[in-house]
Design brief:
Elements (H helix, E strand, L loop, with lengths): L2 H25 L7 H6 L5 H10 L2 H11 L9 H14 L8 E14 L6 E5 L5 E4 L21 E2 L4 E5 L1 E3 L5 H8 L8 E5 L5 H10 L4 E5 L2 H4 L24 E2 L34 E4 L1 H8 L35 E6 L1 E15 L4 E11 L11 H19 L7 E8 L7 H9 L1 H7 E6 L19
Parallel strand pairs: 4-9, 6-7, 7-8, 8-10, 13-14, 13-15
Antiparallel strand pairs: 1-12, 2-3, 2-11, 5-11, 12-14
Bound molecules: zinc ion (ZN).
């Protein structure tokens, strides 16, 4: 081959490549995208998002919150069932509802205090007289606290029993805390008072039992939640800090979901394991109390000073015990923990709402929140549901107008019995495991949708 032929071929190739690049660059117009590409991108329409945001009405959210938190609605209670009906009626509304809404029920294992025999913590003199008893209910500061349906302070699934022994203060109930005490004190047969924080609620009792402790009392230290404020003048309803008699209720178990049907949905027909085979429970009684009652117990303790990082804001120097100081009210006294909880199986509903996707109906976006609360639940969880209902109203209205449908399927969930250990949502996941595994694109969870910086001077003249 001649050399000029080689040069010619090279120039020719470069020229063709350059023309190709130019065609690629200028030739493909963005205006000629096929329809399916536009369909796929429709939800990214910024106008839609703007329009949606303009339609959010804060007055609706406020009214939703008022309705949702009007009554205490612990899981499976009458008030909880009323909220099931409320969600169904909103999501089935002809003009503002979704494509479909239904309830899905599970028979779940729960635990409640005995109304007639309230749990308590007592101090017993050497003669057996009761010289102190913790409050069986919180002080009623406002009218809504007078509701007889407010569940008494308790720890769900804490075992029943009456145990008595010398009191020790064990900080947060971590293994290292009990180890520290055990270096100098025989913990066998003692009752430990611990504050919330540091480790999971039930772990405090599981850890305690390993050191021979026979009962646990849990309280919330004002240092940990109230910026150290404990005086009634500085707490609710003079501020939003927890009042001295306020008690944090909670679930007292390690595992999520229904405990009698691990890995399976708790349907009527599902095999249930015997209660004795449940894992992750405490085997010693435990009861939560307010910091007002905790102060009475902790500030009279004897023994060496607790380490500096164990000190809280009850207004005295914390000692570790065991037992009470001489010359004070409780000298030689012991502490008794009395727990009378009932474990029971109840029907709990998830409420599910559906908007079918236009392009990828078998791809799911899930958006959920639990519905049950320990008491009124204005923040946890109703603030989240109040917003969710406004979102479904706006999307439902667009849907019913026939002008909009999302690319993928959106599934809304209102979970039952979350406070007892994420039960409703776990049963849902166990029920639909294979579909969820293959088709779920994202899950958005909302719960407390208001949580802000502490306001040092809150204005409580217009509480919402
Ligand atoms: Zn919650």
């Amino acid at each position: 081959m001649n050399w000029w032929k080689v040069v010619g071929i090279c120039f020719g190739a470069v020229g063709i490549l350059a023309i190709g690049l130019l065609i690629g660059h200028f030739g493909i117009s963005t205006d000629t995208e096929p329809k399916w590409v536009k369909d796929l991108a429709q939800d990214l329409d910024e106008n839609f998002i703007k329009q949606f945001m303009n339609e959010v009405n804060n007055e609706n959210i406020k009214e939703n919150l008022r309705i949702l938190s009007k009554k205490p609605h612990v899981a499976t209670s009458e008030a909880d069932e009323e909220l099931v009906q409320l969600l169904l009626s909103r999501w089935n509304d002809l003009n503002t509802g979704l494509d479909e809404a239904k309830e899905e029920r599970y028979k779940v294992y729960l635990s409640f205090p005995d109304e007639k025999t309230p749990n308590n913590v007592r101090v017993l003199s050497p003669e057996g007289n009761v010289t102190f008893q913790s409050r069986e209910r919180e002080v009623q500061i406002t009218d809504d606290q007078k509701d007889p349906n407010i569940i008494q302070p308790f720890l769900a699934f804490a075992p029943n029993g009456t145990v008595k022994g010398k009191l020790v203060y064990a900080n947060e109930g971590k293994i290292s805390d009990f180890q520290y005490l055990a270096n100098t004190t025989n913990l066998n047969g003692t009752i430990a008072i611990v504050r919330y924080g540091g480790t999971g609620r039930v772990n405090k009792a599981i850890n305690a039992a390993k050191f021979g402790v026979i009962g646990v009392i849990i309280y919330t230290d004002p240092k940990d939640i109230n910026d150290g404020k404990s005086d009634p003048m500085d707490t609710y309803n003079n501020s939003w800090y927890m009042p001295p008699s306020g008690v944090e209720r909670g679930s007292f178990k390690v595992n999520f979901g229904d405990q009698l049907t691990p890995y399976y949905p708790a349907k009527e027909f599902t095999y249930r394991i015997p209660e004795s085979e449940i894992q992750g429970l405490s085997h010693i009684p435990a009861q939560p109390i307010g910091f007002e009652d905790a102060r009475t117990l902790i500030c009279e303790l004897d023994g060496p000073d607790a380490p500096d990082n164990w000190q809280g804001a009850l207004g005295c120097r914390y000692k570790v015990g065991p037992g009470f100081r001489s010359a004070l009210n409780f000298y030689f006294s012991e502490v008794q923990v009395n727990v009378y909880n009932n474990r029971t199986i109840r029907s709990s509903a998830n409420v599910m709402g559906l908007i079918r996707g236009a392009v990828e109906p078998d791809r799911y976006i899930l958006y959920g929140n639990h519905r049950d609360s320990w008491v009124h639940g204005a923040i946890d969880p109703s603030s989240g549901t109040a917003v969710m209902l406004e979102i479904t109203r706006i999307l439902g209205t667009k849907l019913k107008s026939g002008k909009w449908r999302p690319r993928r399927t959106i599934i809304f969930g209102s979970w039952g019995a979350e406070e007892f250990g994420l039960i409703g949502s776990t049963e849902f996941a166990e029920d639909y495991y294979s579909k969820l595994r293959d088709r779920t694109v994202a899950y958005i969870n909302v719960d407390c949708s208001v949580f802000g910086e502490f306001n040092k001077n809150p204005d409580f003249s217009d509480p919402v």
